[in-house]
Amino acid sequence: MLGFLKEPVVVTAKINVNLVALTVMGLISRLWGLCYPRAVVFDEVYYGQFVSLYMKRIFFVDDSGPPFGHMLLALGGYLGGFDGNFLWNRIGAEYSMNVPVWSLRLLPALAGALCVPLAYQILVELHFSHCAALGAALLILLENSLITQSRFMLLESILIFFILLAVLSYLKFYNLQKHSAFSGSWWFWLLLTGVSCSCAVGVKYMGLFTYMLLLATAGLHFWHMIGDQNLSNVSLLCHFLARGLALIIIPMGLYLSFFYVHLALLYRSGPHDQIMTSAFQASLEGGLARITQGQPLEVAYGSQITLRNVLGKPMQCWLHSHTNTYPIRYENGRGSSHQQQVTCYPFKDVNNWWIVKDPGMQQLVVSNPPRPVRHGHIVQLVHGITTRYLNTHDVAAPLSPHSQEVSCYIDYNISMPAQNLWRVEIVNRESDTDVWKTILSEVRFVHLNTSAVLKASGLSGASLPEWGYRQLEVVGEKLSKGYHQSMVWNVEEHRYGKSQEQKEREVELHSPTQMDISKNLSFLAKFTELQWKILTLKNEDTEHKYSSSALDWITMDTNIAYWLHPTSGAQIHLLGNVATWASANAATVLYLCLSLWYLLRRRRKIYDIPEDAWQLWMSAGAVCGGGWAVNYLPFFLMEKTLFLYHYLPAVTFQILLIPVVLQHLSNHLCRSVLLKSMFSALTVAWFSSVYFVYCTFSPVTYGQPALPLAELKALRWKDTWNILIRKQ
């Protein structure tokens, strides 16, 4: 029974020495001296702020993309024991001892290192020789720009890693298709393709470009499968469902999970709250949640409320009034009603409080039981401190003459009657009998006499002059097509009024609320709002010293100075390997020219290369050339500040095209032994030049050693490069 113990247990394994060696070299090139410099380098000043907020569990919104990449950087901080206490306010600032620099930079460096063996594997899966695959990996290994970008707390190396992993996974899945469909390895690589695509998109939306390329490729391959008569309808359906599950459903679910974890981690109120809705703010610990705790849910006649404009950008503001009146005449000579000013005020203030009044009754308190206000009900809004009624009439607004002035009515005993009846329209109602709810309901106020809609026009225009204390204009918008957010309001703070006397009511307006409100938002509601903010909230694009255009990237007419030592002159620059980038451009042009030549010749029934070589050539072009195109060309359509690092995913694919073209030239155009030998010698000489450029620029890639002035000047190979030269 125990006879098997008489023989030793032997385990055999195949080890690809090339792959192991490339991985080790990649790790050395990216991890060596990772803590240097121990100072904030370029965009570390930006991403570091988010890492600190993660450590403190404080909510934030980053309009540059989804949260997965930020969470990976924060994971490095967590593993290093970072407490989040560091002021990220200046590039070049020395890190304090509590900042685990090595740990924070580790994940981007590992991702950058693993791109080297991934490049090797991709060429192998494209059925190119191991020599060509080795060349591709070495080009990625010696690419100065990729080394620089992966050695700091930045996201591009992580993005490129997931992009390459997605491409490799799909190629492995596709190569298993004919002989091992629905096997364990087939499922593994298909699922890993979807997971990698989702992770790439979760790091930066630039990952969508490669994701779309792989979806299109999968769609094309499935289209060819439909024409295969050997596959039954049931088999085709199973293939379709498997691809739909792995490449669409699972990535979508994983993308949602990134936000779920993000929102679960960041449960505390923070500086970015103000751009979110009141309901979202109230769901966070502290901040508005502290203020709104204990509020009644349903707005009733007699409720005391503050009304926040839903638009919330460029700043949040609340419906506000004060005792000052509009000037009799404006600077341009137009007249006003001289009524009490109504504005939108960007700070919390007692003058933001209003009382919801029933037009048919005089009382300003909530009855027992409360009478809730519903969609379509007519109300009057009484300013809490001055007790004047919100009013609009056919008088031009101060800054928007095509809109109506909004005021609090003062009876001057002239022929200008009060027009203070408003219809409540709940925009996000589920039925026409919905009750107006605190925080949750988004409402419009439609003027009964003129059908004008209450609008915070100042959010998209200039502030009022000095007489209006630079507050934001509120108007009655007569052309009220659609539901623009500047016309929509929600109740943020709310209490049931109990005091009929004005003096007692003023004291009440300053007191805290006492009743309960359910303010929990579902995850999907929070996700939808946060996703919309990320997509629509854009910072004002300003010209940056190192910004560039997409055309500058191909010829590398630009660089970025990442860091400068304050005394020695040592510096780090984002600069590509000139020899590699020039060769990549040449390979792209040569690939396009040869492809066009072959297509024209094949149209004439002339086949210069075998069919299998043609299929290999086209598939490599779809992956490498297509990857370059989809990651580069969209930037010509973007209206945003661009930097050289935006080109790195595209140039990575373009670099992979170099050995593809070289092997094709060697196999099919160098027909004699002499030509092959000469071509091999030229290839070795060219690769030596790549290594020479890498070594030449390594001092500004790694930041050490510090170069003397003459050598720094010698590195300025182009006049457009900004190598930092200290004045003597």
Automatic annotation (TrEMBL):
Q: What is its EC number?
A: 2.4.1.109
Q: State any GO CC term.
A: endoplasmic reticulum membrane
Record key words, sorted: Endoplasmic reticulum, Glycosyltransferase, Membrane, Repeat, Transferase, Transmembrane, Transmembrane helix
Protein name, entry field? Protein O-mannosyl-transferase 1
Primary place of residence? endoplasmic reticulum
Top EC category? transferase
Organism encoding this protein: Panurus biarmicus
Listed Gene3D superfamilies = 2.80.10.50
Residue ranges constituting the MIR domain according to the UniProt record: 296-359, 370-427
TM region positions: 68-88, 100-120, 154-174, 186-203, 208-226, 246-267, 578-600, 612-630, 642-662, 674-694
Q: Does the keyword Heme apply?
A: no
Topology versus the membrane:
Multi-pass membrane protein
Classification via SMART domains: MIR (SM00472)
What's the catalysed reaction?
A: a di-trans,poly-cis-dolichyl beta-D-mannosyl phosphate + L-threonyl-[protein] = 3-O-(alpha-D-mannosyl)-L-threonyl-[protein] + a di-trans,poly-cis-dolichyl phosphate + H(+); a di-trans,poly-cis-dolichyl beta-D-mannosyl phosphate + L-seryl-[protein] = 3-O-(alpha-D-mannosyl)-L-seryl-[protein] + a di-trans,poly-cis-dolichyl phosphate + H(+)
Q: Molecular function terms in GO for this entry?
A: dolichyl-phosphate-mannose-protein mannosyltransferase activity
Q: In which pathway does it act?
A: Protein modification; protein glycosylation
Q: Which family does it belong to?
A: Belongs to the glycosyltransferase 39 family.
Which lineage do the record's taxonomy fields give for this organism? Answer: Eukaryota, Metazoa, Chordata, Craniata, Vertebrata
| Subcellular location(s) of the protein | Endoplasmic reticulum membrane
Report whether Transmembrane helix shows up as a keyword of the record.
yes
Q: Which Pfam family, just one, is annotated for this protein?
A: PMT_4TMC
